[in-house]
Amino acid sequence: MSAYTLTKTRFRDGIWQGLLVGEPRGISAPEVVVTLEEVPLRGVTLTETADPGCWALDVPVPVEAVGDGVRTFVIRDAESGARLDSFALIAGEALDDDLRAEISLLRAELDLLKRAFRQHCLDSGKTRSG
Question: Which superkingdom, per the lineage (predicted)?
Fold first, then answer.
C-alpha cells in the first residue's frame, strides 16, 4: 500500500498529468516510475506544488507508443511498488470492437441515410408536381 494518492487532472498534447498527494501531508517527495510494456519511460517529471505534500506529475507519451492496438501505462511508487494509477491509449484496429467507435460509425451512416432520404423526398416532390 502506498502513502500516496494520484488523481488524473488532464491528458492533453501528448502529456498525461496528475496530482500526487502524500498522506500524511508533508511527507517527502516519492520516486515515481511509469512503465510501458514493463519498460520505464524517460522524461517523467514530478514537481512540487505550493501545497505541502502535493506534486504535479507529467508523463509524456512517447511517439513510439502511438499506433495500432492498446498501450497501457502503469504509474507506480518506486519504493513500495504499489500501483498509483494507469492509463491506456487505444488506436487503429483495436477500435474495431470498441463500442464508442461502433456508435460513431453508426452516426456517420445514419447521417448519410438522412441526406439520401431528404434528397429522395425532394426529387420525388419535383416529379409529382411537374
Answer: Bacteria
Q: Give the C-alpha distances (Å, rounded to integers) separating 75 from 41, 45, 96, 105.
A: 10, 12, 27, 33
Q: What is the pLDDT of residues 26-48, one digit of tens each?
A: 677 889 999 998 899 999 999 99
The domain of 12 spans 4-94
pTM (2 decimals)?
Answer: 0.71
Asked if 38 and 79 sit in the same domain, the reply is: yes
In degrees and rounded to multiples of 5, residue 50 shows phi and psi of: -70, -25
What pLDDT, in 10s, does the model give residues 94-109? 666 677 767 877 887 8
